[in-house]
Specification:
The chain is α+β, with helices and mostly antiparallel strands. It has a single domain, classed as Arc Repressor Mutant, subunit A. 64% of the residues lie in helices and 13% in strands. It contains five helices and three strands. The chain has a three-stranded antiparallel beta sheet. Helix 1 crosses helix 5 and helix 2 packs across helix 4. The chain is elongated. The N and C termini lie far apart (36 Å).
Length: 108
């Protein structure tokens, strides 16, 4: 991926871009939906449900974790993921505020 000049954009612009980048891939949307439906899910379960290779699922999980949408819990030798609802609400508000403010600006 090319070099981005994040420093020329404000904090909110970078935040919206980071959230929407993660949410901009259908596999990540599917992973988030599966985890939210099951409450807890490990990588192997996601591989079976979604049908992507384990390394691919792991890479997508890493991207989702980078923005804090996932919590990790160790049970025995397995790592289980759940949705960080606090961070989910923050993400939802940030993205929603962007669209609301944009829509209001369009009406001026």
């Amino acid at each position: 991926m090319g070099f981005t000049k994040k420093h020329i954009f404000n904090e909110n612009q970078n935040l919206v871009a980071n959230y929407t980048k993660v949410l901009g891939h259908p596999a990540r949307i599917s992973i988030i939906q599966q985890i939210s439906d099951k409450k807890y899910c490990n990588c192997n379960e996601l591989v079976k449900i979604i049908g992507l290779a384990q390394p691919t699922i792991s890479q997508h999980l890493a991207e989702i974790r980078k923005i804090g949408l996932l919590k990790q819990t160790v049970k025995g030798k397995n790592l289980f993921y759940s949705i960080n609802t606090e961070k989910l609400n923050i993400c939802r508000r940030v993205v929603n505020d962007f669209f609301v403010k944009t829509q209001v600006s369009c009406g001026k």
